[in-house]
Design brief:
mainly alpha
Length: 120
């Protein structure tokens, strides 16, 4: 079970890095776009995050001394931010250019999501 947790954790981190990397690749361009890679990476983070919560719950119920229960407050906050990122992305993915405000909001939400993951 810990092997599955480590694999999903790696996928979760890769999804976040993909999301941030694709969004940051638009910095030098005068007209920002939301590329499909950002949405695929966000979905990878979402799916692997859900799997991580399930695995952590299972590990906690089988061995509570070694595994803490998942922090549902943190999970809920991260889920809300990721859903907002996905909604902004899907609403603006077909547009030839999006406002810098939307693009920067997606980056800010991703960074806040990272802050929540590391601090709470």
């Amino acid at each position: 079970m810990t092997l599955a947790r480590n694999i999903f954790l790696l996928l979760h981190i890769l999804g976040f890095l993909g999301l941030l990397g694709v969004l940051l690749s638009q910095i030098p361009k005068p007209e920002k776009r939301i590329l499909g890679g950002a949405l695929h990476s966000a979905l990878l983070s979402l799916i692997s995050g859900i799997a991580l919560v399930g695995i952590r719950t299972s590990l906690h119920s089988s061995d509570a001394a070694n595994w803490d229960a998942p922090d549902h407050t943190k999970v809920g906050i991260k889920l809300i931010f990721l859903v907002i990122i996905l909604v902004l992305g899907y609403k603006n993915t077909k547009k030839p250019a999006v406002s810098t405000r939307i693009w920067a909001s997606m980056i800010a939400l991703a960074l806040v999501n990272l802050f929540v993951a590391l601090s709470l």
